[in-house]
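Homework help board

Subject: predicted structure for assignment chain

Our instructor gave us this sequence and asked us to write out the predicted structure in token form, then describe one feature. I got the tokens but I'm not sure how to describe them. Can anyone check?
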Amino acid sequence: MIYPYSDIRKVPLDYQGITSSAYAVQRQQPDKEGVFTWKECGVVGNNYLLVPNSEVKDLANEIATKSVHQWEPMKEYFDGKRFVYFMQSKSETTEIAQGDDISLGMGFWNSYDGSTALQFRTFLVRLMCTNGMITKDFMNLMKFKHNAQSEGYEEQIINASKVVDNCGDDIETVAKRMRKMVETPVDLNEIANMRNTHLSHLPVTLWGKISSHFLNKDSDKILDGDVNMWDFYNACTDVLWHDEKPTMASFEHNQVITDKLLGAMA
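My token output:
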């Protein structure tokens, strides 16, 4: 098991007594006997400001506290180097179809290897199946500027809570496109066309999982010719959000699929 909130440190690298300008990032991880040891999880420059995942979670909770919405934890991911923490609000919802609502979510990204800047994004959640729908093009992204003493966070926390509380127009813009998805019928020919256009970037294995899930989940509706783009899109997010063994690519593919299919609904 990988512990996302264990202690971390930066250690100077040296080679045969020659000190390098690079630093190794190490986190505490239990071995097979349960003894905690230091495990390297990245190499960064001297000026890289390492932020513990525990502080990121605290930051998320502070923003949630200052927001007018009511928030609860939703999902977290850590691969030993990169961390994502998601929260969702159910205090306000937006209807896409009868009995099918979406709500607001916010996600926080962090890394110990320098691959991802500390940031937060607003995203949307389909309440019927708790699918997260990540978008870069239609919702907000905010990177946190910080120093070694984490000074300036308070002002940024207030700004972030304002971003969260004032994204109603963005939600409605996305909701309109999602409602258009509901009104857009698809058949196997259209799915093949999407594969060759909007979704040509997807790896073959992921496309296979999505196609299989869609065909099995909506088989009766497909036979009756009663499926739409919303059905297909939710098959995509269902596979990616509820993957038993997710990777960072799961969230990246979620975002790209969302942006491509929402963009097609202009």
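Reply (TA_rk): Your tokens look well-formed. For the description, you could write something like this. The longest helix spans residues 248-263. That's the kind of observation they're looking for.
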